[in-house]
Amino acid sequence: MEESRNTIVLICVGAYLAVCVAVGIWALRRTHSTRDFFMAGRDLGILVTGLAVFSSTLSGFGFVGGPGLVYRMGMSSLWMVVCASIGYVLAFYLLAKRLRLFAELRESITLPDAVAARYRSEASRFLTALAILLGVMGYLATQILAMATVLQDILQRSFGPISLEACVALSCAVLVFYCVTGGIIASVYTDLVQGAVMMVAAVLVLLAAIAAVDGGFAGMSELIRQDDPEAISPWGALGAVGALSWYFVFALGLAGQPHIITKMMMNRRVSDAKFILPVSVVAYAVSAMLWISIGLAMRALVLQGTHPELPGSDAAAPQFLQSYAHPLLAGVVFAGLFAAIMSTADGFLNIGAAAVVHDIPRALRGRSLGNELLWARIATAVIAVIASLFALYSGEQFVALLGAFGWGTFAAALVPAVAIGFNWKRATAFAANTAILASLAINFGIKVFGIVLPFGFDVGALSLLVSLTLFFGISLVQTAPKIDEDIEAVMDL
Question: C-alpha distances in angstroms, 419 versus 97, 363, 402, 441, 463?
């Protein structure tokens, strides 16, 4: 079977891409309105919603960027991955019930719709949509780059050298077809199968990683310790300040990720949230084992000379699966990985397109575009192309760090205005708007000017600290705002 390894992988990936086409066509027949395209008709069950929330969190960021970050920095990225369980609990406690009720009361089909209803402010709607659109570029670029990186590794083994640009173009083309036809419906139903597959695959990959290195995790730890004691220390190579800043922005920041919290508006009943949370947490906890085990195993294998030096840290996951996992397991994991990337990218394209054709026009001229569904599909294709260019030419070569930038952008802009503001009646529209603008200025200013913060402190953590300070400070000195009676009743629950 080893001699036909790449053939098996190609068949699994090819079969999955064919399924994507079929799901897209099936979802096209169920998508009749922008409510279907953006909200899946608000008719999702517990299992589908729970796995959709979990898949949106991990995706290409976790399956490609995560192992690459462990390979490069050691234990530092554990401060990203272990805090997600706390993040789920916070996000569901703060938002699950309120977002779903806002969506029902005001027929909201996007997160900026809910923000506008809470603050009675079209400026808040506009700035929320702008923050989503800008954050989408960094995070969507992560998904496209992850997909292209894996595709490049697979195709080169069968067809010889192939450029990353060609793989990005192919990934973008498949992604656009899948997203334009199916909208969010295609994404959430793909998540159902993909989530189940990845939970089983993560356990099997963990066992393969343990078997690949003599002594299992103890052997890996000793090899890494001899090479770089800091990498295997609790803080990893990044250091305490950087690791704790990741913990802060990833634990609190999950409540500001629009591609995740928007799915809390899609379930069939408000009461479903208490069942959706454990599904998401357990699925994430199991699948995160892949993030940790592959990164440690590949670094140990390279150090002991069993595997050649990687061309880049993002190659850790593809090369481990190709070289040390059973061919059928590798094929299934690659297919599941593509499923995770496609469904998460669909989510980003969906909220980005909604910002362009629904939220920004409503904020500026009081109504969304005519023939909104058609324009949503056009905007989806345009955003995918722009994000592909950003992935190639942003100057950032690591999937995980692109993902961290996108995560931090969303967290700093939306945690104050949404996660805090939907629970605190004292919060004002001006405070929310100021927090969003300040966070975007810090995030993109530091990125554009190439500023490096001391001690590895994360840019997203800095901007989140500033935006929270401004949000609380301004709200406390301003007069308490007027809140519509139905919105206030939801906030009292």
Answer: 12, 21, 24, 20, 16
Query: So what's the pLDDT on residue 37?
Result: 59
Q: Where are the alpha helices (DSSP H) in 228-262?
A: 240-253, 258-261
Q: In the chain, what are the domains?
A: 2-399 (1.20.1730.10)
Task: State pLDDT tens for residues 420-469.
Answer: 999 999 999 999 999 999 999 998 888 778 788 898 898 889 999 999 99
- The one-letter code for the residue type at 127 is L
264 residue type, one letter = M
pTM across the whole model: 0.85
Strand partners, 267: 44
